Amino acid sequence: MPATLSFTLKQARRLALVSQGFNGRSPPASVQSTHVNRLIERLGVVQIDSVNALVRSHYLPLFSRLGHYNPDLLDQAAWSQGRRRTLFEYWGHEASLLPLSMYPLMRWRMQRASRGEGIYQQLARFGQERQDVIHRVLAAVREQGALGAGSLSTRQEKAGPWWDWSAEKHALEWLFAAGEVTVAGRRGFERLYDLPERVLPVAALQQVLPDEAQAQRGLLLHAAEALGVGTEKDLRDYFRLEPADSRARLAELEEAGELLRCEVQGWKQPAWCRPGVKIPRKVAASALLSPFDSLVWERSRTERLFDFRYRLEIYTPAHKRVYGYYVLPFLHNERIAARVDVRAERAQRRLAIHAVHEEAPGLDEEGLQALALNLRRMADWLGLARVQLNCRREGGVRLAGALARIGGD
Q: What span, in angstroms and rounded, lies between the C-alpha atoms of 21 and 212?
């Protein structure tokens, strides 16, 4: 089918930015729970990550879009009880926080997981072979309430790194994937699991469940609204759908007129968008981005949209890193204009900048000042007294001057 719409790369970029909540307007003077909930409803999913070099990653997308806010607002939405709870944890895009309105759209994935489909092979095999442990762990959760894996473990030897889980941890992860338990809260960063009916609001659990095809179409539509415009792979990746499911549902949505096929300048693959999309004339937003921000998490899309090649180097040996350990892209005036290696040194109450790398053609004085202001605001948000620049590159020297002008160093 021939393309019916055509976007320049600048138009696609602006559409993506505004769809992702970067509208260029001033953030609210005082961020309330309604702002947090509205933004996460727009995004549909916020990825969780455990790395705490700066702040846990799920807190950053809200700061990037809303500015200074109290992280307790996100904690309440994600892990409180009663009406303040508006989010749930599940495998959305990796481990994620999702609005409760998305719960019915994830039930088919839970049902597949209970059959051993769509989950890690090791976990699927455990579900087939160790139902005895699964039943024992589920009974313990029923009787005792919210439990972490550590309090259930019967293993004697010390746990090893990474995926060296106890049998009880495997059981809890299987039950979580199958939707038989959910995350009631966290102790530190450890999940505490409980029965969904004791954690989630009754209204969320009583929502009408769509069938698999309806749910997958709903997820693709939400992805299209959150991305603005995207290829089949872009749309599929947002909620990690299987290629066969994605392609079938995409064809159905296109035939129904709920998604329109289009082309984007320089993209080899066709793209899709929602009917009636409006493209702003400019998006004057500046923000430091989490490595797991939904604007940049699909790396090939980031290259197509911003001509920005981004790879996380946390697990790369130090001597092989190109840009640094925990590097934040810096969005400014529709470009990803720089990347900054940052660390929160809490004991010293400082935000340490270990490296600044500008993207061609570099940052002008206005852009440099915007970066300095973003870093100062981030330090304030994290409760850090000062920004310390440890970069001797030319960009670092220029940034030091900009920080000095705003009193940031």
A: 29
